[in-house]
Amino acid sequence: MRKTEYLLEATLFQSRWLLAPFYVGLVIGLFGLLIHFIRQLVEFMLHLPSSTESDVILGVLALIDVVLVGNLVLIVIFSGYENFVSRFDVESHDRPEWMTKVDFGGLKMKLLSSIVAISAIQVLKAFMNVGSYDDKKLWWMAGIHLVFLCSMLVAAISDRISEKSKPPEELPASKRKLLAKDAEKLVKDARK
After folding, report:
1. What is the 3-state secondary structure (H, E, C) of the chain?
2. Has residue 145 been placed in a domain?
3. Is 6 part of any domain?
4. Domain ranges, residue 127
5. Number of independent structural domains in the chain
6. Higher pLDDT, 38 or 153
7. Choosing a second label site near 1 at 20 to 30 A (CA), which of 18, 133, 152, 169?
8. Among 16-25, 127-136, 165-174, which is the least confidently predicted range?
């Protein structure tokens, strides 16, 4: 019976590697996004001499939109792989500092923040080109953006509440360091 239990647990533990192809697929999707960005940039630059100020702003917003989606995909790849599959064994100066500090709650907030930013850009683009949209579509876009924004706020509040109830040893290492620094500062202030 114990051998069966060990085999089951080992199989379940190793099943995390089934996620690896998903992250490879996201890397391929990121490459596709790069191709789309380059095509959009070339098109933007070709039309730049005859563009109005509004067209330039809309073009730049479209480029920012693609960059934010790329950032979102990259955050999911790095954080998802590190949180659910395996740690990266890359020890170099090129490693982004946030990679080791993003836990699942942090990942959730980064994703929601990116989605809200992307949504805000879409709403801004629509309002800058208001003649191309009917009122109903504009209201829907604003309403959907508001739902994303409220979702982010609720998630942030719930994370804040749940963190306060956790003992320090259950917090991510980055939060423990911040708590330790705050405690040191309080002690120093109290001695003064």
Report:
1. CHHHHHHHHHHHHHHHHHHHHHHHHHHHHHHHHHHHHHHHHHHHHHHHHHCCHHHHHHHHHHHHHHHHHHHHHHHHHHHHHHHHCCCCCCCCCCCCHHHHCCCHHHHHHHHHHHHHHHHHHHHHHHHHCHHHCCHHHHHHHHHHHHHHHHHHHHHHHHHHHHHHHCCHHHCCHHHHHHHHHHHHHHHHHHHC
2. yes
3. no
4. 19-87+95-184
5. 1
6. 38
7. 18
8. 165-174
